[in-house]
Design brief:
Oligomer: heterodimer
Helix content of chain B: 25-40%
Helix content of chain A: over 70%
Largest sheet of chain A: none
Number of strands of chain B: 22
Distance between the termini of chain A: 27 Å
Largest interface: A-B, 58 and 51 residues
Mean pLDDT of chain A: 88
Number of helices of chain B: 15
Distance between the termini of chain B: 56 Å
Shape of chain A: globular
Structural class of chain B: alpha/beta
Largest sheet of chain B: 8 strands, mixed
Number of strands of chain A: 1
Radius of gyration of chain A: 19 Å
Radius of gyration of chain B: 33 Å
Mean pLDDT of chain B: 80
Number of helices of chain A: 13
Strand content of chain A: under 5%
Shape of chain B: elongated
Order of helices and strands of chain A: HHHHHHHHHHHHEH
Chain lengths: 237, 510
Amino acid sequence: MLKTWFIFKREVAAYFLSPIAYVLGAVFLVLSGYFFSILLFATRSASMQATFGNMAVTFLFVAPVLTMRLLAEERKLGTDELLLTSPVTTTSIVVGKYLASVLTYLVFLGATLVYPAILRNYGSPDMGPIYSGYLGMFLFGAACLSAGTFASALTENQIVAGMVGFGMLLLFWIAGWVDAAVTGPVGQAVSALSILEHFDGFQKGMIDLSHVMYYLSFIFLFLFFAVRTIDSRRWSA
Amino acid sequence: MRLAILRACPIRKFALGRRMRYGSNALLLTLAVIAIVLMVNVIVARHPAKLDLTQEKMYTLSEETRQILRKLDRDVKITAFFPEGDAVGEMVRDLLNEYTRLSSKVSVSFVDPDKNPSLAKQYEITAYGTSVVEAGSRSRKVMQYDLVEYGGESQTPGFAGEQAFTRAIIGVLEGEERSVYFLVGHEERDLVQDYWQARSFLEGEGYTTKTLNLASEGKVPGDAALVVIAGPQKDLAPKEIEAVRDYVDRGGSVMVLAEPLRQKGQLQNIKALIAKWGVGLNDDVVIDPASHYFLDAGSPIPEVQYHDITMKLITEKLGCVLPRSRSLFESRESADPGVTVSALLKTSGQSWGETDLEAKQVSFDPKSDNKGPLVLAFAVERVSEKKTVAESGGDDGTKDGSADEGTRSEDGVGKAAGDGAKARMLIVGNASFLDNDVVTFQGNIDLFMNSVGWLVGKEESITIRAKSPSYSQIYLTGQQASLVFYSTVVGIPLVFLLVGGGIWLRRRNL
C-alpha cells in the first residue's frame, strides 16, 4: 500500500512537472468548452446531457496519450529493471502509475465544473443528471485510462502504446454499432461490451449498478492484464 | 568448454520448464479471472438496482405498472416502429427498457420502418411512432399521439408513454374479446360494403366486429363491448328498443349514427330511446356556408369541442367532414337522472338546419329552420340512479376532466357487478362520415376510433401521470453568450496552460 503510494506520488510529480498534462488538459478543455457553449446556444437547455457525450468522446482520444508514457518509458530507459528488482510488486507499480493518470484526469474534469456553475448562474438546471453525468464521466475516463495503461505495458515505444491504446478504445466504442448489423445474442453480447453504451444512463440521470459494475470490471481487467504482461516479461527476460 | 555446455544444458532445461509452467498457469489464471468478472457482471445485470436522479423520476415506473408486470403470466412482445434517432423513439426506448428489466416476459424490438418496410407492412403500420403490443394472438397499437399529453399546469407536453403502454398491455391481456356489434335489420350501413375501411381499422386495433339482429337474437349478447346503430333507415321495433335499453342498464355502450332521412317524423322509437339519454334528433339537413368541405355546403366541417374523445383532433388540428348531417339538441327534461351530455362537434354560427327536405334550392328560413350553431355529435355518460347524489356536482361533462378520471376508475368494477353501472353513449347526426370514400378524410377515422375507445373505455381505468422532462431553458443575451463562450473555450484552457507553463519554466530555470 505504502509502495503504491510512493509510485503514485512519483508519477503525479512526473505528470505535473512536465508540459504533457497541461497541454493535454488545455486541448481537452478547449474542445469541452466549445461543445458546452455551442450546445447551450443551440438547445437553450439547461442540461449537460449532450455535453457529457461529447466530452466522453473527446477523452477517448486524450486518454491513450495521457497513459502511453506510463510503463513504456520505464522500459525504454531501462529503469523498469530497477523498479522490478526493487521490493515493489508489479501490482503496486501498475496501480500507482494508473492512479496518477486518474488523478490528472480528475484535475481536467474538475476544471469543467465551471459549466454547471454557469448553468446554475443563468438558469435552474436539474442537478440530478449532472451529478450522475460526472460520476459517469469519472468511471468512463478511468476505464479509458486503464486500457491505455495496459497498452503502455505492451511495448517500449510510446507512440505504439498510444496507437494501440487508441485502437482498443475505438474498438470498444464502436462495438455498440454491431447490433445494427448482427442481430441476435451475438450482436447483443458484443454491443454489451461497448464503452459508450454504458455511459448513456449516467448522462440521462440514472445510476445503474450494472453499468457501474461494467466500468469497474473494465478497469480491473485491464490493470490485471497489464500486471500479467509485465510479470510474464519478468520471467521470460 | 565441454564442461560449460554440459552445465548449461540442465539450467536451460530448468528455465524453459519453469517458463512453460508459469506460462500455462498464467493463461489459466487470466481465463479464470475473466470468467469470474463476466459472471459477476451477469449476476449484477440480473438484479437491477438503480438510482434515478432526475427531478421528475423520469426513469422510474409507477406502482401500477410494476404490479402489472409482476403479475404477467404470458409473454408480451412489443415492436416499436420509429425512425432511427427519433427523439420520442429514444424516450420510448428508455421506458420500455425499464419494462424489460422488471419482467423477463416482456420483449422489445425497435424497427426502423424505412429500413424494414416489409415488417411495417406486415403490422399494417401507417405512421411513424406506432408501436404494436402483442400477447398470443391479440395485439394492440400504441400510436405516437398516445404518447404525448397536453394540458396540465406546464406548457410543455408531457410524456404519457407509460400510461399508453401499460394500458395496451392490460388490453392485450384482458381475457374477454372486445366485440363491437353492428345492428342489422333496419337498412343500416353494411359492414362489408359501406364500412369495410372503418371495420379494418377496428380489427387492426384488436376489436372483433360482428353483426347483430336483435329481432332474432332477442337481446344484446353478453360479450358486446359496444353496439353500433349505423344509419338506420327504418325504426327499431319496441322489443328491440327494450333490448338496447336493457343492455345500457347493464352498463353497455351504444353508438347511434342517425343520418337525416327523406321523410320527417321517422325513427320515433329511436328518438324516444335517446331522449332518455338527454339528446334529441332534429329532422333537418345541416347547411353550413361558413365551414364545409370544398364546394359542398351540405358537408359541414364542424368545430371540435374539448372532450376526451376529441383530444387528438384538437392537438393535431384535424377536422371532421360530415356529409349530409342532421342536427341534434340537448333535451334535459326527458333525460334520465345521472346523465351528463357533452357536445363534441358544433357547426358555425352561419349554419342552419334545413327542414324543407324536398327543397331543390336551400336557403335559411328563420321561421321553420333550426338556427346555428348546431351540434352534430353528443357524448353521453349515464351513471345509474344510486350514484346520482354523489355525481350531481358534475352536471357539465365538458368541464370536470379531473373528477371524470376519478370516477371512471370504478368503471370496470361497475360493469362487472351490473349495478351502479356507468353507461356511455355517442350520438352523431350522421352516418356517412364512416363510408369508405369519406372515412379517410381529415380526422374522421380518429373521431370514430377515439369514440370507440372512449365508449369501450375499460383500460382507461389505469391513469398514470404523464411526465415532462424538466427542460429548464436558458436564454442568454449576446453579451452573456460571448462571455460564456470565451470563458469556457479560451479562459479555462488558458489558465491551465499558464499555470503549467509557469511550473515548467520555474523548473527549467532551477
